Amino acid sequence: MTTSTAPSATDLFAQVLRYEHRADPYPYYAQLGREPVTRMDDGSWLVSGHREIRQLLHDPRSSADRLDPRNKVPKPARSLLMQDPPLHDQLRRVVTDEFIPRIMGMRDHLGELVDGLLDAHTGDHPGQLDVVADLAYPLPVTVICELLGVPREDEALFGSLARRLTRGLDPIDTQTEEEIRELDQARGELVQYLEGLITGRRADPGSDLLSGLMFHQDPDDVMGPIQLRVTLGLLLIAGHETTVNLIANGTLALLRNPDVLARLRTDPDLATPLVEEVLRHDPPVQMSGRSALADIDLGGTTIPKGSRIRLLLAAGNRDATRFDDPERFVPDRRDNAHLGFGGGLHYCIGATLARAEAQIALTALARRLGSPRLVADPPPYRENAILRGPEQLLVAFDRLTPDTTPKER
Questions:
Q1: Cα torsion at 366, 371, 377, 378 (round to 10°)?
Q2: What is the phi-psi region of residue 138: left when phi exceeds 0, alpha when psi lies from -120 to 50, beta otherwise?
């Protein structure tokens, strides 16, 4: 007689990270979610319960300084996402002061950018577009480059560097030696490029975000050279890589749920709750990390001081103790307290911009594409497990109508 043994948390997490499960890691998240707090064989902890993740996101004993000990990046060279107060608060204050005012009132411009990208495919005939390459990628990279004051001719280089660097966000033991060397090379290229931008802006300041960060009105909050470069690198990646996935994942949800697509086509106001449901159901950021500064009682167990912690945001977003029918995509779901933008001190600074970009892009696709359908389902996915999204998303359509809708004010 044989007996079966349930897979351990370590085994299940390894399955989440395996590329062959990138298109659908959710069955493994669901199994991990049966225990909201579990210990891995290496001594680290997985937290998959919605309530427990929220607790850690707001607990000052849960430190954002959670780099793998094998990663030797010095503290001054870490982004504000991996910093604790008081340095985190100082850096975030500067970024917020300079970033938020510059994105207010951008909806009309975002709509123009979206329609300009789709216009290249307009015609009363069948066609095909790659939602990633033709819309989800160029839209946010153009926006963040405009905000930072990056020359238009450098946008392709800027975007290429970001795509190469995102691989470094995944657990280091999932990266090959060649990938690690490539990451080091990309970091060096980014530093060199950013130093050139900074030198140029120092000689000739403008009204862009980079100038604002360099010449912040409060001299006590002016960033040092290393912090400035790291912050720019963070804005580069967080400023568009997550939005690429949000738009692509949202398009997948629409095409897999044609009734929802039909509703959005006639009711553009549905875009607001719909994007929130995409952030819950298929989030662009699947997990985050923390480390314990003290013993933390959580979910009926104690996480010891010094432990590394992985917050499985994608699992928490489908926690059946928090959400009704969590596996189903419900575009107007009520009380949708998802974890798509994190929470606490590190709540995503760019959440407002990402929401607007996704709402406008998805509404335009629904309004302008005639009889859209997926060419491949599932589509091919990128290597990244943490910033998870399609590498390519081919959509066939019968026609792509010209834009005739007045822009929002």
A1: -10
A2: alpha
If DSSP codes are grouped into helix, strand and coil, which group holds residue 390? Answer: strand
pLDDT tens digits for 35-61? Answer: 999 999 999 999 999 999 999 999 999
Write out the two tokens for 193.
């490029």
In a domain, 405, yes or no: no
Answer yes or no: is 2 within a domain. Answer: no
List Cβ neighbours of 321 (8 Å cut-off, separation of 6 or more).
49, 50, 51
**CB burial of residue 179 (10 Å; 0-12, 13-18, 19+):** middle
| Torsion angles phi and psi, residue 396, rounded to 5 | -90, 150
* Each residue's pLDDT tens digit, 58-85: 999 999 986 555 555 666 677 888 889 9
pTM: 0.93
Query: Using one digit for the tens of pLDDT, what is the confidence trace for 310-349?
Result: 999 999 999 999 999 999 999 999 999 999 999 999 999 9
- What ranges in 71-106 are assigned the alpha helix state H? 87-103
Element containing residue 289 per DSSP (H, E): strand 288-292
Cα gap 257→362, rounded to integer Å: 13
Cα(65)–Cα(345) distance, integer angstroms: 13
Which residues, in sequence order, are CB contacts of 109 under 8 Å at separation 6+?
none
User: Using an 8 Å Cβ cutoff, are 289 and 351 in contact?
Assistant: no
Q: 200 by DSSP, 3-state: which?
A: helix
The enclosing domain of 38 has a CATH number of 1.10.630.10
- The answer as to whether 1 is a domain residue is no
373 found inside a domain: yes
The burial of 189, by beta-carbon neighbours within 10 Å (0-12 exposed, 13-18 middle, 19 or more buried), is given as middle
**Cα(61)–Cα(123) distance, rounded to whole angstroms?**
57
